[in-house]
Design a protein that fits this description.
Layout lengths: L4 H16 L4 E3 L7 E3 H23 L8 H20 L7 H17 L7 H8 L13 H34 L7 H44 L11 H43 L3
Antiparallel strand pairs: 1-2
Helix pairs in contact: 2-4, 3-4, 4-8, 6-7, 6-8, 7-8
């Protein structure tokens, strides 16, 4: 969480902040929409491999006897998520519990990358010849929007599967303002508009909530790191700001760890709630 004097001498605080908030990008075509954030994709794939490398062997080693500490921890996470799904999702689906577990663990792992000292991995990346390296996937709006759009598609799929096409499309024009006869025809455009707003708001709120929290956490770590960027200026400020920086970084790390866990839980629970609402007949 400490800043580097070399970064300050090379361009100052503005360049330091810009450097840490810039993704390593690959332009695959013309225009701003044909850009891939390689660091976001790479870190996400590594975290997916860690998730699979931990939970798949743990599932294969599961037995009826007394589990070890690691096995007990994995089972506690799986059972906890499964109980939450049973209490929230009122339909019948074998997909919901594994989906909720995957969302919770992966989002937490992506959020947890914010706890790593802000200069550590970018420094290692620079030694490997990478000009930029941003390591918090959920601080990239592309990641959170992509996950939210996937949830949106699943909501529509669950609605069609559990209600059938007839009831699914009927509800678009008859809820939430219920009416009968001619009044139902008059209210159909309003119902459709309200339903459209509701469907757009769900992925929007999911993506922006997670992105906003993690981007703010990442930015605060960077601002804390700038406390000693002026170390080369003398006046003894390094000795004053050094302890302040360490204490601020320690306190914010504890708080950000709680935020990372809470945001993963919220994203998981809202996904399950939305899928449960899609499966229920109003």
């Amino acid at each position: 969480m400490s800043g580097s004097a070399e970064q300050a001498a090379g361009g100052g605080m503005t360049e330091y902040i810009h450097h840490h908030l810039h993704n390593l990008q690959w332009h695959v075509g013309a225009g701003p929409f044909w850009v891939i954030n390689i660091d976001t994709v790479g870190v996400t794939l590594v975290l997916v491999a860690i998730f699979l490398g931990v939970f798949i062997p743990a599932a294969r080693r599961a037995h009826a006897g007394v589990p070890g500490r690691f096995q007990a921890f994995v089972e506690m996470v799986v059972i906890g998520v499964d109980e939450l799904v049973r209490e929230t999702f009122h339909g019948s689906s074998k997909l919901i519990a594994p989906l909720a577990l995957t969302i919770f663990v992966l989002v937490f792992l992506m959020n947890f990358m914010d706890i790593i000292p802000v200069d550590l991995l970018p420094l290692l990346g620079r030694e490997a010849g990478l000009p930029y390296l941003r390591v918090v996937p959920t601080a990239d709006l592309n990641t959170t929007v992509g996950m939210a759009l996937t949830v949106f598609v699943l909501i529509q799929y669950f609605g069609l599967k559990h209600k059938g096409p007839r009831l699914f499309f009927k509800e678009m024009f008859t809820a939430p303002l219920h009416a009968h006869g001619f009044a139902a025809v008059l209210l159909a455009p309003i119902n459709f508009l309200l339903r459209l707003i509701e469907e757009v708001v769900r992925p929007g709120s999911l993506s922006l909530r997670l992105f906003g929290n993690m981007y703010a956490g990442e930015l605060i770590f960077i601002l804390i790191a700038t406390m000693t960027l002026g170390a080369g200026l003398g006046h003894g400020m390094t000795y004053v700001m050094g302890p302040v920086q360490f204490f601020s970084g320690f306190v914010w790390t504890l708080f950000d760890l709680l935020v990372a866990l809470l945001q993963a839980f919220i994203f998981m629970m809202l996904t399950v709630v939305y899928l449960s609402m899609a499966a229920e007949q109003h």
